[in-house]
Amino acid sequence: MSNLQVSNDSLQYDDLKHAVETINQEIETLEILKNSLDGNLSKALDLLQDCKGRVIVTGMGKSGHIARKMAATFASTGTVAFFVHPAEASHGDLGMISDDDVIIAISYSGESKELSDILIYAKRHNIPLIAITKNPESALGKNSTLVLRLPDNGEACPLGLAPTSSTTATIVLGDVLAVDLMERRGFSATDFRQRHPGGKLGAILCKVADVMHKGNEMPLLDENALMRDALLVMSEKMLGCVGIINEKGELTGIITDGDLRRWMSRDKSPDLILEKVTNVMTRNPKTISPDALIVDAVNMMNNTGRGITNIFAVQEQKPVGVIHIHDCLKAGVA
């Protein structure tokens, strides 16, 4: 083995060793955070849930970056929130904070001088302030309504200086608050989609009702119809299927392009157009609720024995729409 190969192997080993040490240090900090949570968490959640205004999240430096992320997570999960830069607050942005708001101020040491004007403003206007810091006895801790304490477990940085473990713990604590508030408020996938209408995530959260063909767009026929009628409807609606309904309007079967191919390959009567639709249809077809997600429809299509391309949406056994795999593709899901 060459010296270069030995050197590269040694370097790779050191890289992996340091990576594992960093991860372990951060995991250890999160374990301390998990085991140190107390009644102040519920008190903080009470303040946030009862807030009649907005949740104002603030912090300086790395804490400011986390505060921005925390505010964005709150906003996307049902809690109206935004970030206020503490330095800008001292130059007019304090006017963005109302008496009905709740402030979350982040500072690992609790001694960020830039937060002082926000602390004074909160005191003067009796605005609840939740401190996230490692030091309850700090200026931030003493001037807050309550403290959510961060672990004082050092940093994963080999110098013990760069915010690493502490910022990870802060991010996780912010996620805890956001997720707990979601649980308290019964925040649903529908609520989530309203705040994420764009991109892949918005598409995944679309409902079948959002894209299904309904009303006169649905290819439907009575059980007494003949196959010549079915072929005309399939050609007219261009969805590759026709749903068969009984006298009560309930879906009892479906005829697809695949059913036609299977029928023609058998030793059946050659005069297909004169057959009753009930002789050709697939009985008790797969159906879905119009309130189901499109991704559920795609999974249903893909996970049937032979694969299907259409599903009727039904309510009380009556068809209210039909969704085609192409509709899912257009929506960006399939």
Can you describe this structure?
The protein is of the alpha/beta class and 334 residues long. The protein folds into two domains: 185 residues, Glucose-6-phosphate isomerase like protein, domain 1 (Rossmann fold); 124 residues, CBS-domain, CATH 3.10.580. Helix content is 47%, strand content 16%. The protein contains 15 helices and twelve strands. Strands 2-1-3-4-5 form a five-stranded parallel sheet. A four-stranded mixed sheet has the order 6-7-8-9. Helix 1 packs across helix 7 and helix 2 crosses helix 7. The radius of gyration is 30 Å and the shape is elongated. The mean pLDDT is 86.
In short:
The protein has 334 residues and is an alpha/beta fold. The protein is 47% helix and 16% strand.
What attributes does this structure have?
single chain, 334 residues, alpha/beta, Rossmann fold, CBS-domain, 2 domains, five-stranded parallel β-sheet, four-stranded mixed β-sheet, 16% strand
Instruction: Give the name of the CATH superfamily of the largest domain.
Output: Glucose-6-phosphate isomerase like protein, domain 1
Helix proportion range = 40-55%
Q: What is the residue-mean pLDDT, rounded to a whole number?
A: 86
Secondary structural class: alpha/beta
Strand element count: 12
Domain module count: 2
Major beta sheet, specifics? 5 strands, parallel
Cα-atom radius of gyration = 30 Å
User: What is the CATH topology descriptor of the largest domain?
Assistant: Rossmann fold
Q: Can you write the helix and strand succession as a string?
A: HHEHEHEHEHEHHHHEHEEHHEEHEEH
What percent of residues are in strands? 15-25%
Strand order of the largest sheet: 2-1-3-4-5
Number of helices: 15
